[in-house]
Design a protein that fits this description.
- The protein is mainly beta and 113 residues long.
- It folds into 2 domains: 1-31, no CATH class; 44-108, no CATH class.
- Helix content is 10%, strand content 42%.
- The strands form 2 sheets. A 5-stranded mixed β-sheet has the order 4-5-6-7-8, with no helix packed on it. A 3-stranded antiparallel β-sheet has the order 1-2-3, with no helix packed on it.
- A hairpin with a 4-residue loop joins strand 5 and strand 6 (65-74).
- The longest helix is centred in the last third of the chain and has 11 residues, at 98-108.
- The protein is elongated and about 50 Å long.
Length: 113
């Protein structure tokens, strides 16, 4: 649907060929949080028991993929999660700080332990 593209290296104005509506889009690879290639040797190995920071590089051994943390969130059940933009897998949501969540559950339900 793109008829014309105008803009800089990291942002583009796209015009619809039907309705002529224009929208600004960020170009792939230049989106917020993308700071170039991530080196697997310097990336922190992913471990669900650890806590990560936005912008931190992560190596996921099971997928043999590296990525960068783009955001942090809480899931609907209250667990902590991170959104990681991987080079091969794309954006994936991963659990973080799992150890703390298990300890909190033991404190809340001591009868079940």
């Amino acid at each position: 649907m793109m008829n014309e593209a105008h803009g800089s290296a990291d942002k583009l104005w796209l015009r619809c060929s039907r309705c002529h509506h224009m929208s600004m889009m960020e170009t792939p690879g230049k989106a917020a949080g993308a700071k170039g290639k991530v080196d697997a040797n310097t990336a922190t190995p992913y471990n669900p028991q650890e806590s990560f920071e936005i912008g931190q590089s992560i190596f996921h051994a099971e997928w043999n993929d590296v990525g960068r943390v783009v955001s942090k969130m809480k899931t609907s059940d209250g667990a902590h999660a991170i959104v990681v933009s991987f080079e091969k897998q794309g954006q994936r949501r991963l659990i973080e700080n799992l150890k703390a969540e298990i300890e909190e559950a033991k404190d809340v339900h001591p009868i079940l332990s």
